[in-house]
Amino acid sequence: MIDLTVNGATARVDVDPATPLLYVLRDDLRLHAAKFGCGLGQCGACTVLVDDRPVFACLLPVGAVGARTVTTVEGLGSAAAPGDVQRAFLHEQAAQCGYCIPGMIARAEGLLRKTVTPTETELRSAMAPSLCRCGTHMRILRAVRRAAVMRGGGVVEPAEPVT
Amino acid sequence: MSGQASRRDILGGLLVAFALAPTAALAQTGGGEGSGGPPTVAPDLPGTLAKFPDLDAWIRIGADGRVTVFTGKVELGTGVKTAMAQLAADELDVAIGRVDLITADTALTPNEGVTAGSQTLEQSGTAIANAAACVRLLLAETAAARWGVAATTLFTRDGVVLDGQGRRASYAELAASTSLAVRARADVPRKPVAARRLIGRPVPRVDLPAKLTGLPSYVQDMRLPDMVHARVLRGPSSGTRLTPDLAALRRQPGVARVVEVGRFAAIVGPREWPLEQALRVANQGAWTRDAGVPALPPMPAGLLEMRRESSVIDTRRDASAAPGVRRLSARYDRPYLMHGAIGPSCAVALMAEGQLTVWTHSQGVEPLRTAIAELVAMPADRVRCVHREGAGCYGHNGADDVAGDAALIACAMPGVPVRLQWSREQEHGWEPLGPAMLAQIDATLDASGRIVDWRHQVWSNTHSTRPVAAGDLLAGVEVVPPFAPTPPKPIPQPNGGGDRNAIPLYRFANQSIVSHFLPDMPVRVSALRGLGAHLNIFALESAMDELAAAAGRDPVAFRLAHLDDPRAADVIRRAAARFGWSRYRPRPNRGRGIAFARYKNHGAYCAVALDVERIPDEGRLVVHRAVVAVDSGEAVNPDGIRNQVEGGVLQSLSWTAYESAGHDGARRTDYDWSGYPILRFADVPHSVVVEVIDRPGTPFLGTGECAQGPTAAALANALAAATGVRIRSMPLAGGLAAHS
Asked: Which domains does chain A have, with CATH numbers?
């Protein structure tokens, strides 16, 4: 038996401790925001927060989570009451197929918990581990900038003027 | 809105012809990329109403006043569900929140073939808008009969018919005595542009709140009671076969069952992770290259040596044209490209009580049903394919194959729902690739700097091996005896496949366009967003730039001088103006490029301007700005258009600059994102601006694929301006590094 703290609640699961956290979230806890994309830590579709840091849930063995808290996108808000980062993504309509977006939101949340005043370069490198094949990047960046402002900060614009 | 104005605007003018009636020729072309659905039975009706003319095929109104809209098209992440809900709600005059949309389900929706070719709004959207207008009129006529007045004296407001004198009746009560099992009328007008409240507005996507908060939204998220998981066993890539040690797999923990059907094999168990581990064991088995797969010649030149079927698809001769004085002769090519869905293909299937149900992210549930029914030897009416969204597909990826796989497994274990998701390595290894292509352009300028002769030849495999029969599914050739794949064939103009957009929209005195169709496929290929348009527009618009330079003309002015379509000229002018083309100051290693196309020559008009820099020591490129102007006809949702076009620009930058799917002659060489890198945040432009030119009251023009070609050529043109080096082979970043 493994005890986990996910989205503020405790959960007990009976699985092989080597099982990646992603399968426990999706198959045991029915939390579907984090997605399977590669199983290799290359695409970021599975990204969740462990304590305040984004991690690839497809790689992290559930037995290694320990006492740390897990936050998935379900823990940031609901369709009826979306959280601030989700509201920012909705405001910018920052999704096409949307499959990568929960991972993007988790990664953005991790950045904003570290700083609400990142530079544009820091923003882009924070998001870099996550892949989007639809090409929604510009909207995702706008959404994170908006979320930073909503938290009382903001992204420092790049030196290059943008039209 | 006053009652008077509403009466006049909304129900008057019943004899006005359809504003959106497409030309007959285009309505007949069907999907062009797989099955287009059943034949036309009502040629006077617009969009897919011509195939399914009865209103209740499209719209039903419940006793609770909710409106259910049926479409045979699917949501691929392009936002069409929202656009179709806008069309229905606006034309019916109900709040959008009262509209429920049912997308492709073989048991419920009209057979609209494949959702492909940027035709969803042209076909299904047009049908739904006009059906909604008809339904609204019928409801008003019911009220008119009840009240003993003429329907033209009535108006509607948010699901209610009113007479302006205090009488009102809800759609729900009127629907109870209004049959929608009637043929749509061809003379019902759409709502006047000025009266529209939703069409033309950036209505937020109806599906995003669920997707952004983790509610189950994808076939990958389906969890049915007592569902089991499955993994399929295959060689490393298409054209190989694996010999797994099935006895060893049966002993693997977590493997409850091995399903074998001929050479098809899969493992099944209650949990995913043990199956993943067993799959790794299975993949250690020996594999061999399939006999009978044609040898892969060196690419791209090998395309010229392959067996071909050549046809002249367009020709023009004007003997009075001035003689040519300067000539361009150039070859342009692209490698095999991956769709690269972020989520590997997935399906859920259940065989219960003699009925097989498959939940699938296929683009074509109807042809998939035909193929699966043949695969499992069941009558088609006992097989139901229901669309559930997957990750964006950008064309024919593993969606259909995995559905066939899941169906075969489910048939071996009746009563048990089976969920099968491919591994990342399987998606990279088995998805049909976008075909490698080569184009040769020979063009001549006269002494005044005008193009007087243009010859475009293109060499390509088919751009559609979408399933129409069991042999088109991977499982179909693994069962014993195997089914035969459908022989590949070209997609005819005006859509075209390998020759899509090979015919220029420019006016040249003499031209000859030749399509060399290559029937032998050394590598598994099929439809990738834009089909041949990506390479053909890359070639055409690169050559236009080269010729402009040879003529000493500005690239924008040179293009405009050869165009007589005002809408084409408009997008070029608007993109150039918004970009600041005329005041652009070139700097060392930095340049601008522009390119234009009208997708398929009958879809959306799109012009792309890029500001690009080469970082010399690194051989790297930076796209500073992308500015796009797009004309999609009537813009149902301008933000949806912007989203699609922004995405198209970034995706095409990724394909064109960086991507190439490798093959060593025996198998593919790239199995994950390290072997097949795609555009990341570090390399996206600093800004992308999309200007939508709305033309209310004109037909919808397919938009989803319109940016792929122009972006590719604009990048090559900007790099040539920045560096003086003309790169004609994709991926361009590779060519750039070679010249740095």
From this structure: 2-76 (3.10.20.30), 84-150 (1.10.150.120)
The number of beta carbons lying within 10 Å of the beta carbon of residue B237 is 26
Identify all chain A residues contacting B643, using CB atoms and an 8 Å cutoff: 93, 96, 136, 139
In a shared domain, residues B228 and B348: yes
B78, B205, B221 ranked by CB distance to A93: nearest: B205
CA distance B133 to B125: 12
Residue entry with tokens 């609770």: B64
3-state helix, strand, coil in chain B (%, to 5): 35, 20, 45
Q: Do residues B383 and B457 share a domain?
A: no
Q: Looking at residue B147, which CATH number applies to its domain?
A: 3.30.365.10
Task: Report the percentage of chain B scoring pLDDT > 70.
Answer: 95
Residue of A nearest to B342 (CA): A37
Q: How far from chain centre, in Å, is Cα B414? A: 35
Question: In Å, how far is A67's CA from the nearest CA of chain B?
Answer: 23
Count structural domains, chain B: 3
Determine, yes or no, domain membership for B214. no
In a domain, B122, yes or no: yes
Identify the CA nearest to B351 among candidates B260, B413, B261, B264.
B413
Cite the DSSP H helix spans in B168-264: 171-175, 208-213, 246-251
Together in a domain, B279 and B409: yes
Q: Is residue B211 part of a domain?
A: no
**A127 contact residues in B (CB cutoff 8 A):** 681
Asked if A137 lies within 8 A of B77 by C-beta distance, the reply is no
State the complex-level ipTM. 0.97
Give B686's contacts in chain A (Cβ within 8 Å).
158, 160, 162
- A/B interface, count of CB pairs below 8 Å: 194
Residues of A in contact with B276 (CB under 8 A): 39
Q: Which residues pair with B69 in a beta bridge?
A: B59, B101
Q: Do A23 and B213 touch (CB under 8 A)?
A: no
**Residue B626 and residue B726 in one domain:** yes
The alpha helices in B160-234, defined as continuous H runs, are 171-175, 208-213
Compare all CA atoms of chain A with the CA of B649 and give the residue at the minimum distance: A135
Residue B508 shares a structural domain with residue B655? yes
Q: Which of B377, B405, B430 is the last residue of a domain?
A: B430
Same domain, B564 and B607: yes
Q: Cβ–Cβ of B342/A101 closer than 8 Å? A: no
- Residue B615: is its pLDDT beyond 80? yes
* 3-class secondary-structure state, position A13: strand
Separation CA B380–CA B95 (nearest Å): 38
B41 shares its domain with B189: yes
Is B646 close to A73, i.e. CB distance below 8 A?
A: no
Cα–Cα distance for residue pair B703/B117, rounded to 1 Å: 9
Instruction: Examine residue B490 and state whether it is found in any structural domain, yes or no.
Output: no
* Domain carrying residue B574: 437-463+498-738
Chain B: give the shortest CA distance to residue A110, in Å.
16
Express each pLDDT in B363-409 by its tens digit: 999 999 999 999 999 999 999 999 999 999 999 999 999 999 999 99
Under a CB-based contact definition with an 8 Å cutoff, are residues B342 and B391 in contact?
yes
Could you read off the pLDDT of B129-156 as tens digits, one per residue? Answer: 999 999 999 999 999 999 999 999 999 9
**How far B178 CA lies from chain A's nearest CA (Å)?**
36
Of B272, B674, B679, the CB nearest to A23: B272
- Among the candidates B167, B199, B231, a domain finishes at B199
For the four alpha carbons of B157, B161, B164 and B165, in that order, the dihedral sign comes to negative
CA-based nearest distance A64→chain B, Å: 16
Mutation choice for A interface testing from B81, B213, B708, B715 by most A CBs within 10 A: B213
CA distance A42 to chain B (A): 6
CB contact under 8 A, A39 and B424: yes
Residue showing tokens 């139901």: B384
